[in-house]
Write a structure and sequence with these properties.
Helices cover 48% and strands 14% of the residues. By secondary structure, it is an alpha/beta fold. It has a single domain (10-191, 229-255), classed as NAD(P)-binding Rossmann-like Domain (Rossmann fold, 3-Layer(aba) Sandwich). Strands 3-2-1-4-5-6-7 form a 7-stranded parallel β-sheet, with helices on both faces. α5 (156-176) links the parallel β5 and β6 (181-188). The chain is globular. The chain starts with 9 loop residues before the first strand and ends in a 6-residue tail after the last strand.
Length: 261
């Protein structure tokens, strides 16, 4: 992918066993990096490591990113096994309990906060301590087209915390850019990942439409009239992780086919 060389670099990716996270893990491994992926399913984790095909440079740490200790365990595993963390991809993040604001439950609101925002803070806090020692670091937060707009019903929690994640991205960029550490967010449009397949039908039902119509609406919103792919997002992540990526900091970069206004 673009000739980017990451030999000797160590990356941590939350939610890295499937979808966007796995796509980024694959790209980084192919570029020579060692990678630690986190996920809730040990079975999916084992499958992901097997598919990556380089057990000497890959690790899986089971954990739920809504718990601080599980997030920190993934970063600590990278430091323990590979001696450092150079790249952090805060990919895990979603929501459930889709409903209008007046009917949104406390549980759904708080889960989204931990899943999207708190997890990125916890991972970044511990990773930055290690990155600062060497004056090099790349933090990539996987945001969403919904972090730039608010034109979907019944997902105020998702919209709110993706907007907040973008703000956190910029705050880290401002504080650590002079130390050779960049912080950027990628804002994908709709990608039919496992998470989309699990949460999409519920979100669609809350809007009174089918899952197929839900996906078609996203495609229609894009000027390209199609959904995006994992590979398109991974290609941008690879650039941000490279030495040349130092020129991009505090940016919220869309890979949405021209969806966001």
């Amino acid at each position: 992918m673009g000739g980017v060389e990451l030999a000797g670099k160590v990356a941590v990716i939350t939610g890295g066993t499937r979808g966007i996270g796995f796509g980024i893990a694959k790209a980084l491994v192919e570029a020579g990096a060692s990678v630690v992926i986190n996920g809730r399913s040990a079975e999916k984790g084992a499958g992901a490591i097997a598919e990556l095909g380089v057990p000497a440079r890959t690790r899986f740490v089971a954990g739920d990113v809504t718990r601080r200790e599980d997030v920190e365990a993934a970063v600590n595993r990278a430091i323990d096994d590979f001696g450092r963390v150079d790249i952090l991809v805060n990919n895990a993040g979603g929501s459930s309990g889709f409903a209008p604001v007046a009917e949104m439950s406390d549980e759904a609101w708080q889960e989204a906060a931990a899943w999207i925002l708190h997890s990125a803070f916890w991972a970044s806090r511990i990773a930055l301590r290690d990155m600062s020692k060497r004056g090099f670091g790349r933090i990539i937060n996987i945001s969403s087209v919904e972090g730039k707009q608010a034109n979907k019903a019944n997902c105020c929690h998702y919209i709110t915390y993706k907007h907040a994640l973008n703000g956190f991205t910029k705050a880290v960029a401002f504080e650590y850019g002079a130390q050779g550490i960049t912080s950027n967010a990628i804002s994908p449009g709709a990608v039919e990942t496992d998470l989309m397949k699990n949460a999409g039908p519920q979100a669609a039902a809350s809007q009174g439409i089918t899952y197929e119509q839900f996906l078609a609406n996203y495609a229609q919103d894009a000027s390209t009239r199609r959904l995006n792919t994992v590979e398109e997002i991974a290609a941008l992540a690879l650039l941000l992780c490279s030495d040349l990526g130092i020129g991009i900091n505090g940016a919220i970069l869309p890979v949405d086919g021209g969806t966001a206004l």
